[in-house]
Amino acid sequence: MTLIIGQWALAALFVYAVGHAVVSDFRHLQIPNWTSVTIVLAFPPVALLAKMDLATLGLHLGVGVVLFAFCAFIFARGLIGGGDAKLLAAIGVWPGLNGIGSYLIVVALLGGLLALAGLLFRRWPAPGSLGGVAWLRPGREGPQLLPYGVAIGLGAYFLIFFQPDFPIAWDRLARL
């Protein structure tokens, strides 16, 4: 029973760290490094407590490494922010090889919706307290920054509920 509680606590830590990254990126266009580090470090104990074999665990971590290398490449070309790159790679560890395609498709779709919202709110004032969010201000000059960490994090939340093996450890917990 203690292991199950520990596993759920680590899973809750994942949810909290992703949520903090989403809110921080939305409000300040910054994702704290501790969120990405926490997301990656929480996975191995959750996976091992769910009796994931070491080879599968290695594959999940490998997905994160490959995704990080790709994200570093596109970050170097100025296409995404550094926090977005780290967050995408960190969350990418959780679905592993079987779920990464679905996850990236959901993130791309949510990113498109976010870009559309950014364009609309820059043309017309954002409602209520959203008017204070810098990236939503109408007529903003300079580069059109978007908080893609929002799409990255919401994509993780979406898959938690709609893809049963994201992460595999939570699926096993649900069967107990």
How would you characterize the overall build of this protein?
By secondary structure, the chain is mainly alpha-helical. It has one domain. 73% of the residues lie in helices and 0% in strands. The protein has 7 helices and no strands. It has helices at 2-28, 33-49, 54-76, 82-92, 96-123, 148-162, 168-174. The radius of gyration is 17 Å and the shape is globular. The relative contact order is 0.16. The mean pLDDT is 83.
| Amino- and carboxy-terminal Cα gap | 10 Å
Instruction: Tell me the radius of gyration.
Output: 17 Å
For the sheet with most strands, the description reads:
none
Which blocks of ≥5 consecutive residues have pLDDT under 50? none
Order of helices and strands: HHHHHHH
Domains counted in the coordinates: how many? 1
Helix- and strand-based class? mainly alpha
What is the mean predicted local confidence, pLDDT?
83
Number of helices: 7
Proportion of strand residues: under 5%
Helical fraction: over 70%
Shape: globular
How many strand units?
A: 0
